[in-house]
Amino acid sequence: MVLACLEAENVDVVFGFPGGAVLTLYDEIYKKGLNHILTRHEQGAVHAADGYARVSGKPGVVIATSGPGATNLVTGIATAYMDSVPLIAITGQVARPFIGTDAFQEADITGITLPITKHNFLVKSAEEIPWTFKKAFHVANTGRKGPVLIDLPKDIQMEEGPFNYPNKVDIAGYKPTYEGHMGQISKAVSAVKKASRPVIYSGGGVISSGAHQELLEFSRKVCAPVTTTLTGLGAVPSDYELFLGMPGMHGTYAANHALDECDLLIAIGVRFDDRVTGKLDTFASQARVIHIDIDPAEIGKNVVPEIPIVGDVKLVLQEMIKRVKPGETTAWCEKVQNWKAAHPLCYEQKAECSLKPQFVLEEFNRLTGGEAIFTTDVGQHQMWAAHYCQLKTPRRFVSSGGLGTMGFGFPAALGAQVARPEETVVCIAGDGSFQMNSQELATAVQYNLPVKIAIINNQYLGMVRQWQKYFYGGRYSHSSMAGSPDFVKLAEAYGAKGLRATSPGEATPAIQEALSTPGPVLLDFQVDPEENVLPMVAPNTSIIEMIGGEGS
Amino acid sequence: MKSILAILVEDRPGVLTRVSGLFSRRGYNIQNIAVGRTTEAGISRMTVTVEADPLTVEQIVKQLNKLVNVIKVSDLTEETSVERELMMVKVKAEPNKRSDLQQMVTTFRGKIIDVSPDSMIIEVTGDDDKLNAFLLMMQEFGIKEVVSTGKVSLLRGGKITRDSKV
């Protein structure tokens, strides 16, 4: 019955790991067939489903057994929840008579995931299965998207019954608002006309809503520069002349100064995260604020906007584009473009010196023609990737933004590759992060998923080391990764190709070789261990108090 | 500032946990909570009293509305609604003080619902002020135990919560 539900929802692949409480479900998979990717850890499966969802725009589906299988999903579910990724997690549960008895492999996973799911269900009878799945997919993939968990007791999976999949769903307590309020849109249009220094601050909501074309059109029409959050990267092309890069703690000089000086902040599909705003009362302090978001609870949570608009950002932008007229912004656009030219992101790669991480990323851009899908783990390499990866279209930059989950990037890359088998998928990993889910090399090899893993190996938990350097007097407490394996041999042990580069001269041919190899390849880039991510803003300070933002 | 939130929820297992969990994990404090039936089958009504500034209350209402099992949230202010709470108080009732005690119960329009040689249980209904005043008066007799239902609240006039705008 579960498989019929997945079929009805047009699910073409699931990621999972079997176990006692889902044996019946796996027996159905054996008998009826389902495109199933077996990972080596449930965390790998849930991140893969997340990567699949972020790249394809469809809900990712993950299956795990009860108890430890289910609890191993927790980090992945929380990751998806923070970044509003549609995900269906199906967990086995002990049979109904055993629930609440501390039975073998029993865990209250609906209780555990209550704060990290958009909604969850404990199914109590077989008749509930079809409408539970219908509701789950509807809730996960509409409104502000997010993970939904379905807990299925083992004895229910065995029950047979008539299968009637509902074609409509009506949930009294769940009615997202899609159309923006016309009065509010008019106010926003008039604020844009009056503004001389507008900035668009765009986030993951724009990608999720598929509003990237509208965003670009809106920015062009009103002549307003755009800065996008980490999860919003790719909403406008990286080479768009009015794109300022990412704002915030590791934001560009142009983005942070534009936010500081703007007189109108147009916030679209964003949640004013502390990593973007820095000290809240200094953030865009001269600006009137328009905030467009589908989730009413985001509006006024951190910043109280003058003009709130609740709705799907795509529909709201379409409406605004129809009516909006630009203000007098020419001088402002020139100013921010001058900032951009005068204060670019920079690093120094000398030919014979140690390899710089930024150079590796630029070589990936060059050699893939800017056509790759990038996934990242969390830390320094993630920020360098956000700075340097060239993106032409959305859904090509997959990174754990809100939760900041180390170990996310590699399994997410596998999911991305499953979603886009024809594309080049590059996982930018840290030597620390990669070791949190390196077991998935077996999955990559088993399914011949030709992901290219670029480990930016600085032999440190680099971002931890960087904070220790700047804020803890250089006391590098337990941030050294000495004792890591030989990554090339590790890849080879799993049957993948491993390559190493220790200098710029070795890096380029290694990338070329990886890209021309049909299967999975791990690249161990041994980079300068003391390189820092700059610019940087200390936490809870104004975002224009930047360390190293001057450029060269 | 005190707010009384009327929350209509689906009557399903775990809904109380979802609501109370939301308060605790976002750092809001519940002063008082009562749950009971409504005229519609499958829908329960929670009355939650919170002490918070208006912006926080707005955020609480929005977060509650995001719960799939929550159908409607209304912020009932003290001006536009009536509130009541039922309390039972077990007090010492020595023979020489019984008539004083009975007089006090009559003054507060309470009811004596159980009598034993040395104690009584008194039922009294009212808003915060009345119940606090009653407890104060009972202290001189000696309070042994107190239990109350939590506060419930209804909009004044003909409007019903389901139709009202938050």
Descriptive account of the structure:
The complex is a heterodimer of chains A (552) and B (166). By secondary structure, chain A is α/β, with parallel strands linked by helices. Chain A is built from 23 helices and 19 strands. Chain A folds into three domains: 2-158, Thiamin diphosphate (ThDP)-binding fold, Pyr/PP domains (Rossmann fold), CATH 3.40.50.970; 182-342, Rossmann fold (3-Layer(aba) Sandwich); 357-534, Rossmann fold, CATH 3.40.50.970. Chain A has a six-stranded parallel β-sheet with strand order 2-1-3-4-6-5, with helices on both faces. A six-stranded parallel β-sheet of chain A has the order 13-12-14-15-17-16, sandwiched between helices. Chain A has a five-stranded parallel β-sheet with strand order 8-7-9-10-11, sandwiched between helices. In chain A, strand 5, helix 7 and strand 6 form a beta-alpha-beta unit. The longest helix of chain A is centred in the first third of the chain and has 15 residues, at 42-56. The two termini of chain B are 17 Å apart. In chain B, 28% of the residues lie in helices and 42% in strands. Chain B has 166 residues and is α+β, with helices and mostly antiparallel strands.
